[in-house]
Design brief:
alpha/beta, single chain, globular, 10-stranded mixed beta sheet
Length: 480
């Protein structure tokens, strides 16, 4: 009886449940004859891009009275991001909620709501990046990418993180714990062990970092325990492959072949540090992905993640976080420009921009208008200077403080003091935090995030939403 009730509940959420008589998460579905789809969905995800981060990035880039591309999206909403078991979510269940319509537990990637990321003793279900998830622990839940692939759409995944990281993984993989990145990588490679057969002949475009989880431990930096070289397997599966910017520039974008680019062993560089001769920008990857998908002359789904916003915020490094937010915004503009040329008026294209969660970043004091950040003017990255006389504001001990700070993080100072101009101009300056945490240990925040939309069906997005509702609104917008 309990199994029947569970099956009935999961069926409504498009869960692929073998025990309930479904096809299972990794079998090839029967695909009826379908007409060529004509609608496009581009889903932009700024990882960790809370509303304070957006505000600070706007001031950093164009000043208080300027506008980012995100600001100009005509339809807007607030999104609640809590997970199934957490007031504050991590990236895995939040992105999975967007992609599946199901609220799941922290650390879980595109599985049913009852899936646990750890055993009863709290031990994660992975060993050395390989999944150890019991077959009785939940069930895969079909993702938007998988559903659109099954209907004949083109598909693409673009990120500045490892392509096996939580956000991109939630579009194409199903694991109990996000750190099983070897298992996640195998899900991308057509024909190999562990391949997610619901991807059909494969995701058409894959760009990002993270070769480590595609290469064996015998190779420099490799982390695969099974000895496989998944990059070689991708090439044998007829992917055109790029490992650097020069090879990226030569990748065909005429739709004649699937294309993949893995440009770093780990995550790609922060935009502030990126060597443009070695790594493409997020805007460049987005543009090539759109060109390649549009060349197939059918509708497509493309996910684009600005993933390193989150990492800089975890480090309480506001300058790098804001620059990566601007790079993310540039990618949105690049996509809109390309799609307006391909689909004037976006009559057949929906563009959604949002974030998976907030951080503890705050704006302090009663600062005067600073204008955009430039050499000699740290702007929003500088000290709070009062709006009456323009003098530095002081704490109870007479010390200055910065406009931006964090609720917790590695930037905590047991004794506060003066802050020099040289410190504020440094790309490595860490904003202060109230609660001390280890390096990279600033936490997510639980605040709502912004969602903006434009194009086909964008008016479906308004008011206050929960992240899992976005999935159904996207499908409604394109008639899926």
């Amino acid at each position: 009886m309990k199994l029947k009730l569970l099956c009935a509940a999961l069926a409504g959420a498009s869960v692929l449940v073998t025990a309930c008589g479904g096809s299972g998460g990794h079998s090839t579905p029967d695909t009826p004859a379908i007409s060529t789809p004509s609608k496009n969905v581009i889903f932009f995800l700024g990882d960790g891009m809370g509303i304070t981060t957006l505000t600070a990035a706007r001031i950093y880039s164009v000043g208080e009275d300027g506008e980012l591309t995100i600001d100009q999206l005509p339809e807007t909403a607030f999104v609640h991001t809590y997970s199934n078991d957490g007031q504050v979510t991590d990236s895995a269940p939040s992105m999975a909620a967007y992609m599946t319509g199901v609220k799941m537990n922290n650390e879980v990637i595109s599985m049913s709501a009852d899936t646990q990321a750890t055993d009863a003793d709290g031990k994660p279900y992975h060993v050395k990046y390989d999944s150890t998830c019991p077959t009785t622990n939940g069930a895969p839940v079909e993702t938007l990418l998988e559903q659109m692939k099954a209907k004949g759409y083109g598909t693409g995944v673009v990120t500045t993180t490892r392509v096996t990281h939580a956000t991109p993984a939630a579009t194409y993989a199903h694991v109990c714990h996000r750190d099983a990145e070897n298992t996640i990588a195998a899900a991308l490679v057509p024909g190999g062990a562990g391949y997610n057969a619901r991807l059909g002949d494969g995701v058409d475009v894959v760009f990002g970092g993270g070769t480590s989880y595609f290469t064996p431990t015998s190779a420099a930096g490799g982390k695969r325990n099974d000895g496989r070289d998944l990059i070689d397997e991708l090439k044998k599966a007829r992917y055109s492959f790029a490992a650097n910017k020069a090879e990226f520039d030569k990748l065909p974008a005429d739709g004649s072949t699937k294309i993949a680019g893995l440009f770093t062993k780990d995550h790609m560089a922060y935009d502030l540090d990126r060597d443009a001769s070695k790594e493409p920008s997020l805007a460049e990857m987005t543009g090539k992905a759109i060109d390649a998908l549009a060349a197939k002359k059918k509708g497509f789904f493309l996910m684009v993640e600005g993933g390193r916003i989150d990492h800089a915020l975890h480090a309480t490094n506001a300058r790098r976080a804001l620059q990566d937010t601007v790079a993310f915004d540039n990618a949105i503009q690049a996509a809109l420009d390309r799609m307006q040329a391909i689909d004037p008026g976006l009559k057949n294209t929906l563009v959604v921009v949002t974030a998976d969660h907030d951080h503890t970043l705050q704006m302090n004091g009663y600062a005067k208008v600073t204008g955009k950040t430039a050499p000699g003017n740290p702007g929003v990255l500088g000290l709070v200077k009062d709006y009456v006389k323009g003098q530095p504001s002081k704490d109870v001990d007479g010390n200055p403080y910065t406009v931006l700070g964090f609720g917790n993080g590695p930037g905590h100072k047991a004794t506060r003091g003066a802050i020099s101009d040289a410190e504020l101009e440094s790309a490595d300056y860490l904003q202060e935090s109230v609660v001390p945490m280890p390096a990279g240990g600033e936490t997510h925040g639980g605040g709502d995030v912004f969602l903006g939309a434009t194009g086909l069906g964008a008016d479906n997005f308004s008011g206050v939403l929960t992240n899992n509702e976005v999935f159904g609104l996207i499908k409604k917008s394109i008639g899926l």
